[in-house]
Amino acid sequence: MRIIDEIINTRRAIYPKQFTGEKISKKIILNILENGNMAPSHKLTQPWFFKIFYSSSKKNLANEMIKKYKESSLELKSNDIKTKKIFDKCKLSEYIIAICMRRDINNSIPEWEEIASTAMAVQNMWLTCVSYEIGCYWSSPKYANKLSEFLNLDKNERCLGFFYLGKFNHKDQKSKKRNNIESKIEWFK
Predict the structure, then answer these.
(1) What's the sign of the alpha-carbon dihedral 154, 155, 157, 160?
(2) Could you tell me if 136 and 33 are in contact, meaning their C-beta atoms sit under 8 angstroms apart?
(3) How many of the other CB atoms lie within 10 Å of CB of 75?
(4) pTM check: above 0.85
(5) How far apart are CA 65 and CA 89, in angstroms?
(6) Which residues are bridge partners to 135 per DSSP?
(7) Cβ neighbours of residue 73 under 8 Å, at least 6 residues apart?
(8) What integer pLDDT is reported at residue 177 of this predicted model?
């Protein structure tokens, strides 16, 4: 069990500017997604699904993200720093995975449970990334819900954000301070 403890304790949000640029095989990406697919879901609805961007498709995604950012921005003029940041995140990532959720067509499960299940799938993916020395993080920009047409999503589907991946050595990660678990629990006898 020490291995899982170590993986959980070294899991961090690793940003694209920290990625090494080394290649990640599609076989590893498939294993990451297979582990995500093992997440629990109420009534086995398995609401998660993914759209994977790599190679030149990352530029298309970046351009669409920038377009939707500009359309949804409350600023009168576009923020060049923000648009460069969006473009650079996509460029520096080896893969970008759109995290999507499909609602049960009968709405037999509350939406929050479907979102929670999808988040559990992403956590499985994140932990698998750590074991492969892959850095990643989940970004959920405000304009993600405006990308339905670009992502070819149906009415009962939605994008919950993007998972950016790139090689990273987790060995030097320092443990982040957490509040003591004892302050968060209450025992009943």
Answers:
(1) positive
(2) no
(3) 8
(4) yes
(5) 11
(6) 166
(7) 79, 82
(8) 79
